[in-house]
Amino acid sequence: MRAGGAITPARAERLETSPALQIRSGLDEGETLGVAAAVLRRWGYRIELQDGYRLAGMKGRYGPLGSPVFHWALTILFVVVALGHLTRSEGLMGVPVGGGLPNRAEEYGRLERGPLYPDRYADLIIEVPEMASGQVKDGVSIGSIPRVRIVADGVAVAEQEVYANSPLRYGSLMVHLNGEGLVAFAEMTGPGGGAAEVRRAYFDADPSRASGFSEARLTYTAAGQRVDVVLEPAPRTSEGQAPQLKVTHGESGQTTSSTVVAVGTPVQTAAGTLVVRDPGVYARLSVVDDASVYPIYALFAVGLAGLGVAILWPRRRVWCQAVAAQGDVHLHVLTDGGERDAALLSELHDELSQEMGTSMQSQEGV
Amino acid sequence: MWTAVSLYAVSAILFAVGLVFGRQRLLDIALWVAVAGLVPHAMAMGVRWARVGHGPYLGFYEVVSSYAFIAVAILVVVVRRYRSLAVAGVIVVPLAFLMLAASMFTSREELEITASLASWWLAVHVTFAKLSYAAFIASFALALVYLIRDRTSTGRFADVLAKLPAQSVVDDLSYRFIAVGFIFLGVMIGAGAIWANEAWGRYWAWDPIETWSLIAWVVYAVYLHLRLTMGWRGRKAALVAVAALPVVVFALIGVPIVYQSIHGAYLLGY
């Protein structure tokens, strides 16, 4: 019996002693069984009749697959998540608008990398050719939107506007906009001349400060001297004035001088001559490299499908046996839930009561 | 919206009186009054939706109001199938009334969609959140009905409770709501993770509301395992279903109030 499974001798014995619906309808065992079969078919069971007084029914044939699919998908998901954390890189990179930075660890302001991160994409350059402010998309105020370009071997391989819910993708790399701020280049030339040491100074919006921006702390070492420099944007004192900076510097953590100068004005320090140039705007980009994301999505979908099958289409088998007894027909019902499927028995009773009533009336009308 | 509040209040009173005095007719009238309350409720939500340009999912007022709506709507749907379950309205309608009334006394500021919320994942995430939590509220109500009837064999309530479907059907229905709610909650969590990755580049950050949603999912997974593997039915299953709902309520409403969370905005504003 393919539909519900064979009625083995043990099952037949259980069927005969299982709870029975006592039906007084004028129908014989075969007709009663036929009505029960019709009800079960309406409920989605595939029915197979046997011997004229027994039936087997089954629905949710693939139900038993649901639970192992879900649990295995969940187990593999945990493994993939763990591997993803070990091989993931996530960091914040401040790219000046109009420029670009190589995708190397030292160019990040904050970086977290798993111990097994393969350091792919180190040869890429992340550029921000332009950034438009005050942007509105579909009626939603987005703010600033940078155009971000990824360059490999001098060729642009990916480029788009980047903002919330619109990241730039390249392979397993994902670039989001994290914020923006001001940037300047602080150039220190040693007392003996020579090549200048250039650092980027980032200033982020900070309403708690009088200037409205955070300060940038830089450290230079020249001629054996370590000089700490603190830069902070200063308010302009007149219209049209060049951007002003408060420059505080000192040796080995001690403040020796603080002055407000226009950008581009040299300041003498113990480590040499400091000049802050090229003030501008920068885009703070969140750069994530995680190859586990799409496998995680796939496993989630598979797990959900398995869960749905297991819960919504569980396999249910039912066996019925109709036995004539003292003018009535006793319909014995056995399910694979045993006595735990009392709900099925109760609903079958209600449904058959309605059906038998209909049948009775039809018979009386004939 | 005050019309809806008033109608839910009248309905709640009628449900209570109908249960106490064993009047099925009153219970039927109470249900119709609740249905009547759904109309101005839906109209108020629709008008606001058209005005602010987004669905009812930003701010305490919108969120709690929409949950009240869904709770009553689900009650109506269930009672259409099982008329005798109308008595569950004694639990659902007062709950909906309290939720809606409370929301009316909070700020009804019309919050705008921000850049990080401007995604179709918002609709997916919120829809499945509402469906799952509504399903859990329904299962809670059914489990409570089961437990009350289990302990009430005589007295004035017994007459009304006797008209309910068999305990096995009530128990099975409670389980089915949890089963469906569990799937919906899983979709909500997954959709939220995918959306977080699109918006912020990180699919899981152990934000308090993310964590507590996962805890709620695990709690209901425990229920399902107890039922499907250990065979827990009836009273034991109902007790677990009743105990599980506070976890969900805390995840939905308590977490944004207690913790600093990036999700706090949806309930408390920016």
Structure description:
- The complex is a heterodimer of chains A (366) and B (270).
- Chain A is α+β, with helices and mostly antiparallel strands and 366 residues long.
- Chain A has five helices and 20 strands.
- Chain A has helices at residues 9-17, 29-42, 63-86, 293-312, 342-365, and strands at residues 20-23, 46-50, 54-59, 89-96, 99-102, 110-113, 124-137, 140-152, 155-161, 168-170, 173-189, 197-203, 216-222, 225-234, 244-251, 257-262, 267-269, 272-289, 316-325, 328-335.
- In chain A, strands 4, 6, 10, 11, 12, 17 and 18 form a seven-stranded antiparallel β-sheet that branches. In chain A, strands 1-20-19-3-2 form a five-stranded antiparallel β-sheet, with helices on both faces.
- In chain A, a hairpin with a 2-residue loop joins strand 13 and strand 14 (225-234).
- By secondary structure, chain B is mainly alpha-helical.
- Chain B has two domains: 1-107; 118-262.
- The longest helix of chain B has 34 residues, at 167-200.
- The mean pLDDT of chain B is 86.
- Chains A and B meet through strand 8, helix 4 and helix 5 of A and helix 7 of B.
